[in-house]
Amino acid sequence: MAGQAGVRGLRPRGTALHAVISFALRKPLGALGGLLLLGMAFIAVAAPVISPYDPLDVFANKRFSLPGGEFVLGSDHVGRDILSRIFYGAQVSLYVGLLSVVIGTTAGSITGLISGYFGGKVDAVIQRFVDTIMAFPILILALLVVTVLGSSANNVVIAVSVVLFPQGARIVRAAVLAVRESEYVTAARVVGCGDTRIMFLHILPQCVAPYIVLATAQLGWAIVVEASLSFLGVGTPPPWPSWGNMLSGLSRTYIEQAPWLAVFPGVALSLSVFGVNLLGDALRDVLDPRLKRA
Amino acid sequence: MQQYAIRRLLQFIPVVIAVSVIIFLIMRVLPGDVAELVITGPGGGGAGVTKEEVTRIRKELGLDRPLPEQYVTWISGFARLDAGKSVWTHSPVFDEVGRRLPLTMELAILTLAFSLLFALPIGILSAMRQDTWVDYVFRFISVGGLTMPTFWIGTLVILALVLLFHWIPPIGFVNVWEDPLKNLAQVVWPAAVLGYYFSAVVSRMTRSTMLEVLRQDYVRTAWAKGLKEKVIIMRHAMANALLPIITISGMQFGQLLGGTVITETIFSLPGIGSQLIDAVVFRDYPIVQAVILIMSMWFLLVNLFVDLLYGWLDPRIRYS
After folding, report:
1. Would you give the DSSP letter of residue A65?
2. Which of A46, A170, B15, B87 has the smallest C-beta neighbourhood within 10 Å, fewest atoms?
3. Is the distance from CB of B286 to CB of B178 less than 8 angstroms?
4. C-alpha distances in angstroms, A91 versus A45, A133, A143?
5. Which of A152, A292, A293 is the best mutation test for B, with the most CBs of B within 10 A?
6. Interaxial angle between packed helices A204-232 and A82-100, expressed in degrees from 0 to 180 and rounded to the nearest 10
7. CA closest to B130 among chain A residues
């Protein structure tokens, strides 16, 4: 890290903190995205503490309250505080998003690693399997899984993991193919390293960069898919708040009398996905400048 | 080209079969006895279920026969245009789905038109004026399409329409053959919303492809010759940029059917998207199977077509 241009005034040292600071200075948009994501995480974790009301508490005589006053963002058609529901909705989105990325992208990456390294028949079989999963449009596949398993946050995690899996497999496999014939890999094999050792010690580090870029992009997707499923009524079951199910059917019926029912959850959703996308784009620019900048 | 086409077709067939098997199996592994679900209805619980009734329903739906036989019956039924009966309305699945399919097709085509209409000019202009305010504005607009979930954009559009124009969501639906104008008025907004979402991806691709093409030597020669910018873009740059753009548009078109599910639900359009959701909620599994099969086939066919088209258009593949 010595002599990095653009890190003004900071003596370059190899600590993680300086990596983060130099990243923030070089890519302010990415830093903004990171802040948004951190904000969302903070809200999700601190929801029980910072919410003025319980998200499930019903105040039947105060339905459709306007924003401001007793309920900061107003109350919904049943009489629950929207602000608290948005805070708790962040929990769902983050939980489902992070967990499905960890499971789906990691499972996909390991599969891609195996598939790319061994090649031949193993590769062909695995790729057919991946192709089959990719044959379904994203939402349809998630819908299918949730139909079979039933609507719950955990089942949504499973559904989204399945959806994210093939992309991870494809991208990591491509990275592995690029590295497989390198000299150090051949050297390791000549020295007598076993397959597992070569895969995880030598090839895997080369795949970390695409994995990180992919994981951030897929986090955005995961959040949107969860919201879509909840919106359609097959995701997080009501009355527990998810930004998606806050936007669904009923709030549309009342849209003329109470537009704030629909606006705020959508804003929360958009800001979160926006932050994740910004961060992902910036990470991609930094980690792999060879990739086309869109 | 022939080799390429044959190889592509050979890849296509096993995937189609695998997809149909998966769809078939998933519906058969639904937790809870399907026959019981049929009797008790969507809410579950309620009327007591006698063993004889369950057995009768199972026989009627053919659930007591071995799985492979069920699969064959189902698939061959498709060939004979008989996909069973909806457990909810008891009318043939083909009729039910067939009635609603044209609307979704219309929505899909209109969406494709909108997305290209948005994406191509935005992408090209962005590339031509890279890093100027024009570029930033357009990139911001297209990022908006990616970040904001379709159902939210749709909700906002409905909100705007309701508040600004006092538009009331139409109850009935008008067929395009009966009254084209009214039909278009109903479909144009969902198509625009969905089109905006898909245009985000296409416009980014257009921009990056154009950027690459504009750096090429032959474009520089054209500039040096003194050709007008418009001519350079239209005649020289576009042709080369089109290949990846077509590929991406094709892939997006395939994904469209997934997007119509949400849009149709929001705008209350009776297409197969909303039909799928209703069927899922009501556990009307013949309809769920049929619709998902149609959507997957659509997706696969579009991908196949795009691959073949790409192979034909790209001279490197065509003459190899």
Report:
1. P
2. A46
3. no
4. 7, 29, 22
5. A292
6. 140
7. A294
- Say if the Cβ atoms of A266 and B152 lie within 8 Å: yes
CA distance B110 to B252: 13
Question: A277, B143: Cβ pair inside 8 Å?
Answer: yes
B30, B281, B300 ranked by CB distance to A233: nearest: B281
* Residue indicated by tokens 């948004």: A36
Question: Residue B92 in 3-state DSSP?
Answer: strand
Work out the percent of chain B whose per-residue pLDDT is above 90: 0
Number of H helices, E strands in chain B: 14, 0
Given an 8 Å threshold on Cβ–Cβ distance, is A138 in contact with B255? yes
Burial letters A234-247, b for 16+ CB under 10 A, else e: bbbebebbbbbbbb
**C-alpha to C-alpha distances, A289 to A205, B251, B269, nearest whole angstrom:** 17, 25, 44
Could you give phi then psi for residue A71, rounded to 5 degrees?
Answer: -105, 115
Q: What is the pTM assigned to this prediction? A: 0.80
The answer to whether the beta carbons of residues A242 and A235 sit under 8 Å apart is: yes
- Could you name the CATH architecture of A27-47+72-289? Orthogonal Bundle (1.10)
Give pLDDT, residue B44: 45
In contact, A237 and A152? CB cutoff 8 Å: yes
**Which two tokens mark A1?**
């890290």
Q: Which amino acid, residue B250?
A: G
Nearest to B39 by CA among B55, B28, B26, B25: B55
Closest Cβ–Cβ partner in B149, B204, B295 for A228: B149
What is the token pair recorded at B228?
A: 């007008």
The pLDDT of B252-281, averaged and rounded, is 83
C-alpha triplet A90, A276, A263: angle, nearest 5°: 50
- Alpha-carbon distance of B284 to B263, in angstroms, equals 21
| CA–CA dist B60, A178 (Å, integer) | 55
A293: left (phi over 0), alpha (psi -120 to 50) or beta: beta
Q: Kindly state the tokens that stand for B124.
A: 């090209």
When CB atoms are compared, the residue of B30, B149, B155 closest to A262 is B155
Q: Where are the domains of chain A?
A: 27-47+72-289
Domains in chain B with CATH codes: 2-93 (no CATH), 102-313 (1.10.3720.10)
pLDDT in tens, B161-215: 777 776 666 655 666 566 667 777 778 888 888 889 888 888 888 888 888 888 8
